[in-house]
Design brief:
- This protein is of the alpha+beta class.
- It has 2 domains: 214 residues, OmpA-like domain (60s Ribosomal Protein L30, Chain: A, 2-Layer Sandwich); 178 residues, Porin, CATH 2.40.160.
- It contains 11 helices and 18 strands.
């Protein structure tokens, strides 16, 4: 009987690890039951055959630094091998081992079998972009950075939740048995267990096959790991700009579609000789929730709802009766009108780093208003009243400049 054909076996065992851990925890997931079933299967076959070889693979998910992940993969392999030696009383010569480091091949297989968002774009990067992209000996880009920035991090977050846990593992990928008395024919050559290079590994099965791990070659150029995406918008309300009221605002993405923002306006135009005043200043803070397909693709984009609070004062006069918000001569806190409201809007991409944000808010605005008339070189106060307004309190068509790592709009055709 051909010992190689006789020896191929379908026994498999996969042990998974928490993030950053290399300790075999039998209470984690199904590790305990998987190991018990594997050991029982080995014992059952040892009644008529001898275990000649166990092939082990280990890997790590790609978050974190490359050097750390390689070291972590090595430690996971050693930890699982030690457990198997204790349970099965196996010599070192039985084991052939491969430490993959960051398991890009495994990730590619998981993506190919999935229906994840932007699947084709992810596969294009995995297949065509090397781990490090260099130009004249300098690292200028990386596969990981492109994946983290794709669609504002949407693809990376999906893989982190659904695929990365499967990559943090050490597995028995092959067991070889021989009939009693033939085990020496299948014994691995001396030095084959640890000394095989990581870039080309031959794994025995019913036929020989070669697996080439192209991505485990370390480039000599050191580089820091890719940074997390950061999303921020710097904006101006074009409605206020058209009314000659300069303004500026910022908005920060908090995660999961939530953002926190604020803005300030200041217009202080006057002509005392003609009794013309166009003065207003104040600000607003707001909390938004983005939703819909565009929002899932990228922060700060798509439909949004929110709440806001306002504070402002004003002085308007055009040669006749004037209106002033707040106590004359007082501070902003004495003069201010206060408001709160709810808003709905939509932020539309118009360029790689620009959005147009349309918003309308309804709410309450109240405060003290003074009416006056100009008499010669003086102003005579005629009436003081309290304003209580319920209705539209906000209108916004803002031009938003997208700032931060990965904060850009995807162009048509997937061009980056």
């Amino acid at each position: 009987m051909d010992a190689a054909v006789y020896g191929s076996d379908t026994l498999r065992c996969r042990i998974c690890f928490p993030v950053g851990s290399s300790v075999v925890d039998l209470s984690y997931g199904e590790n305990g039951s998987r190991l018990d079933a594997f050991v029982a299967g080995i014992h059952a076959r040892q009644a008529t055959a001898v275990l000649c070889r166990l092939s082990l693979h280990s890997g790590a998910s790609p978050e974190g630094g490359l050097t750390f992940n390689r070291r972590l993969s090595d430690k996971r392999l050693a930890s699982f091998r030690s457990i198997l030696q204790e349970r099965l009383f196996l010599p070192d010569s039985v084991f052939t081992t491969v430490s993959l480091g960051e398991d890009w091949e495994g990730l590619t297989s998981l993506v190919e079998e999935s229906d994840m968002p932007c699947r084709e774009e992810v596969l294009r990067i995995l297949r065509n972009t090397p781990v490090w992209v260099t130009r004249n000996g300098v690292v200028v880009d990386s596969r990981k950075r492109q994946l983290m920035n794709l669609r504002g991090g949407q693809a990376w977050r999906y893989m982190h939740a659904h695929f990365f846990p499967e990559l943090r593992n050490t597995s028995v990928v092959e067991c070889e048995f021989a009939p009693v008395g033939m085990e020496k024919e299948l014994a691995p050559p001396v030095g084959a267990t640890e000394g095989q290079p990581a870039d080309t590994v031959i794994v025995r099965d019913t036929v020989e096959r070669v697996i080439v791990f192209r991505d485990t070659v370390q480039l000599p150029v050191p580089v820091a790991g890719p940074s997390k995406p950061f999303y921020m918008g710097l904006k101006t309300n074009l409605v206020y700009d058209a009314l000659l009221v300069p303004n500026i605002g910022v908005e920060f993405a908090l995660g999961k579609g939530w953002t926190l923002g604020g803005n300030w306006m200041y217009g202080w135009w006057k002509n005392d000789r003609r009794h013309r005043y166009w003065r207003v200043y104040g600000g607003e803070v707001g909390l938004r929730k983005y939703f819909g397909q565009r929002a899932s693709d990228k922060p700060l984009t798509g439909h949004h709802v929110g709440v806001y609070g306002q504070l402002l004062t004003y002085d308007f006069e055009f040669g006749g009766r004037g209106y002033m918000g707040g106590r004359p001569g007082g501070t902003l806190w004495d003069k201010a009108h206060y408001g709160v409201g709810f808003e709905y809007g939509y932020s539309l991409p118009v360029a790689r780093r620009l959005n147009l944000d349309f918003s309308l808010g309804l709410g309450y605005l109240g405060g003290t208003c003074y009416e006056y008339v100009p008499v010669d070189a003086c102003y005579v106060w005629e009436k003081t009243r309290t304003r209580q307004w319920v209705g539209p309190t906000k209108a916004e068509i803002s031009l938003v400049w997208l700032l931060g790592r990965g904060n850009y709009n995807q162009e048509k055709g997937g061009k980056q």
